[in-house]
Amino acid sequence: MADAAGRIATLAEEVLGTPLPIRVRAWDHSETGPPGAPTLVIRRRRALRRILWRPGELGLARAWVAGDLDVEGDLYEALDRLSGLLWERGPATAPRSRLRTGLQALGDPRLRTAARDMIALAGPGLPPPPPREEVRTTLGPLHSLRRDRKAISHHYDVGNDFYELVLGPSMVYSCAYWDRADSTLEEAQRAKLDLVCRKLALEPGQRLLDVGCGWGSMVLHAAREYGVRAVGVTLSEEQAAYARKRIADAGLTDQVEIRVQDYREVPDGPYDAISSIGMAEHVGAVRYAEYTAILHRLLRPGGRLLNHQIARRPQPDEEAYHVDEFIDRYVFPDGELAPVGRTVAQLEEAGFEVRDVEAIREHYALTLRRWVANLERSWPRAVRLTSPGRARVWRLYMAASALSFERNRIGVNQVLAVRTPEGGASGLPLRARDWRG
């Protein structure tokens, strides 16, 4: 099968309607494409069977995770070039897979020769089974307690050593806050935690609830620097064990409690302040009104909520929104994004007064690039700690996410809301962003 790369490039042009903007190297060592561009390496022809049987992002994802596909050269540049090729966007940036559309069009009699050549290149037989890193089954109703616990375990119980490698000493798995692009990741994460504490106007002796507390970084910072009594809740057993050890090592066990508990199960309000940092993406549209209502109930009158959440662009038909298949099967099962306007509206519908929305989209791009650099710098160890497929999942999802933030396909926002008492005294100062009254 001589010159497989040339045949693949020709077929791709017919399917996608435009030449490939990157080089292609195939399993027979043939190569074609623009000089100096990143190279898409098709190591095994079964990659084509995966894509033919599951056109779109899931077929590509399976080939990538299995190691059937790879990229040589700048991964960011390759993804950036391919994103414009593989996806079309509608009036409100709603994505549509050009690859899926093009492959479906192979049934057109005019493309019969191309279809036969694609099948011949792919080789006979069914595609191999999905990589073991893929979520196979999801049990129970969407965003039920049982199903959410399973989804959270899939993502967060990868191994604390692996997360230390990626996240660095701060162990904060959310967007950092950068004063300068050359700040260290640890400096930027500390600045983010301190920003949240200042927005919440934390004071000694107050009670703080951190929903989705991760490895305990927020509650540790708030207790150590602001003297609060804090409760952190997570559904991950591994996170909870790690956070409890950190708290014990810091001598704060009398001040901070970590629970393996769902936000729907927290019984002991009211709290003076609530932080929810990078957790609401797991809640889902069917539960979001319940989420906001529960946080409102758990907060004392006059208390503040800081909701830090990734947002997507709105779509003309919101009912047509669906989660990216790669993210759903390999990264965040059942995770959902909402436009920031909908998040603000639902907080207000629950009774909150929204006082500030700060968009920090560019900050997340910087954060993700640092995480990718950490992963790539310690790649052999990352593979040993998890699996080659899991490490490849993380490299792809973080690099692609960094580009999505940079290109304004998704954003992230800190929404400060108050459970304002009936008398109307919010407790906030007259000047915006002078967080203490």
The shape is: elongated
Instruction: Identify the strand order in the major beta sheet.
Output: 9-8-7-10-11-13-12
Distance between the terminal alpha carbons, to the nearest Å? 73 Å
Query: Any low-confidence stretches, pLDDT <50, length ≥5?
Result: 88-95
Mean pLDDT: 90
Please state the structural category.
alpha/beta
Encode the helix/strand succession as letters.
HEEEHHEHEEHHHHHEHEHEEHEHHEHHHE
- Strand fraction equals 15-25%
Q: What is the makeup of the main sheet?
A: 7 strands, mixed
Helicity range: 40-55%
Beta strand count: 13
Number of H- or I-type helical stretches: 17
- Give me the Rg, rounded: 24 Å
Explained architecture:
With 437 residues, this protein is α/β, with parallel strands linked by helices. It has 17 helices and 13 strands. It has a 7-stranded mixed sheet. Helix 2 runs antiparallel to helix 3 (57-65), helix 9 crosses helix 10 and helix 15 (361-377) runs antiparallel to helix 17.
Concise summary:
Helix content is 43%, strand content 16%.
Question: How do the strands and helices of this protein lay out in sequence?
Answer:
Elements: H1 4-16, E1 23-25, E2 31-32, E3 39-42, H2 46-53, H3 57-65, E4 69-72, H4 75-86, E5 87-89, E6 95-97, H5 98-104, H6 112-122, H7 145-156, H8 160-167, H9 185-199, E7 207-211, H10 217-226, E8 229-234, H11 237-249, E9 256-260, E10 271-277, H12 288-298, E11 299-312, H13 325-331, H14 340-349, E12 353-359, H15 361-377, H16 379-385, H17 388-406, E13 410-418
Parallel strand pairs: 1-3, 7-8, 7-10, 8-9, 10-11
Antiparallel strand pairs: 1-2, 3-4, 5-6, 11-13, 12-13
Helix pairs in contact: 1-6, 2-3, 2-6, 4-17, 9-10, 13-17, 15-17, 16-17
